[in-house]
């Protein structure tokens, strides 16, 4: 693919307004991309947004946008329940798709989405961009260098003391989101762990979920809060805490925890347990641990000091990949399917109270 090409980009869905901050390169950070259209069901809001950012074409119907615009890339940033239908429509229209996480609510739906991408010779990828953070990239480099030996367990946590987004909006409604914190930030925690473990095949999942605080209106976040919905008794029928134990066919395991609301400090950490070394990976800090000359050693890794944005780096790599750089990393089909299978199993386990075989 010629690098002289300008990639025409379209944004779909109410979530696209939020996702703009996640994927700023489509606005002005990559010279070979141009946002030409945006769709949102709230016409006044999307028109104001497009005008402020110089986006020429505005739609309130995504099917009309796909039929009227010759788009190369489409960002799907809608409530989770619509990821499948809108991504498939964009793929069938000839666009490559960056779908917000989770890619789908079931493994069967995810498979259908990727089959559609293959049939149209298009790329479908997922916005699990946290693996592009500096700390995660260096931690992954340590995996490649064999620092940890055999990684037999990872504990991955993404929790907020008060971080329920959009209380009363689609985020907290089962029929639109399909789940709560597990499908919002738990997806990132799981993907980071799997990324360091090379996506082993899962064997079993045990999960539990709780909604003790959210249904009381406790733990509201600082963004996306619909005050009117709260005053009107906004709907909250998803979980605010999800916990899981995933066992893999190779004998390794992941302990996964995510929360929107709890009476404990917020935490974002990945703990790596290896036969030769370990690591504690924070959002912006990395510590490595090993034995040297018979004594335990802790290493504070110096990370790049240049400003970084993991979502920006992800989408830059996507454009590189589309331009023919097969070494540019993207979230692949196999990776997305492993994560989807685990999350589907976690929710099934939580509902049944039994371990789920995968």
Question: What does this 3D model show about the protein?
Answer:
The chain is of the alpha/beta class and 358 residues long. The chain has 12 helices and 15 strands. It has helices at residues 15-22, 43-53, 62-68, 83-92, 107-119, 134-144, 174-177, 181-184, 186-197, 227-231, 310-322, 333-352; strands at residues 7-12, 33-39, 57-59, 73-76, 96-99, 124-126, 151-159, 202-210, 241-248, 253-259, 267-274, 277-282, 286-292, 295-301, 356-357. The chain has a 9-stranded mixed beta sheet with strand order 14-13-12-11-7-10-9-8-15, covered by helices on one side. Strands 3-2-1-4-5-6 form a 6-stranded parallel beta sheet, sandwiched between helices. The radius of gyration is 20 Å and the shape is globular. The two termini are 39 Å apart. The mean pLDDT is 91.
Features:
358 residues, 6-stranded parallel β-sheet, 12 helices, 33% helix
The gross shape turns out to be globular
Mean pLDDT, all residues? 91
Strand order of the largest sheet: 14-13-12-11-7-10-9-8-15
Strand fraction band? 25-35%
Structural class: alpha/beta
Which ranges are low-confidence, i.e. pLDDT below 50, for 5 or more consecutive residues?
none
Q: What value does the Rg take, in angstroms?
A: 20 Å
Number of strands: 15
Helical content band: 25-40%
Helices, by number, come to: 12
**Termini gap:** 39 Å
The main pleated sheet reads as: 9 strands, mixed
Order of helices and strands: EHEHEHEHEHEHEHHHEHEEEEEEHHE
